[in-house]
Design goal:
about 90 residues, mainly alpha, 3 helices, about 0% strand, globular
Length: about 90
């Protein structure tokens, strides 16, 4: 069962900002190779968790589908920023 959704977009924004701040604090000044390894491990764990869910959750408009899509897009933005800063 997916977690409850926030009724106000502001609540979701605040939660996303808090999670991002926590991640920045955890990551600190880690080298890019370590960050990439952490992202790979996290991706693999998420894929394993998602495989255990029923396909009905992965339909447009369903919480798991929309949240997974948003997370992937968000991660892609961060990966692009990391690549741009590395050059």
């Amino acid at each position: 069962m997916p977690p409850a959704e926030f009724t106000e977009p502001k609540q979701q924004t605040m939660m996303n900002d808090a999670i991002n701040a926590a991640m920045v604090a955890l990551i600190g000044e880690q080298p890019i190779d370590i960050l990439c390894d952490l992202l790979r491990q996290t991706y693999q764990r998420n894929v394993e968790l998602l495989r255990s869910l029923d396909d009905t959750f992965f339909q447009p408009g369903k919480y798991v589908y929309e949240r997974t899509k948003a997370i992937i897009e968000h991660c892609q933005e961060h990966m692009q920023q990391l690549q741009d800063n590395r050059i």
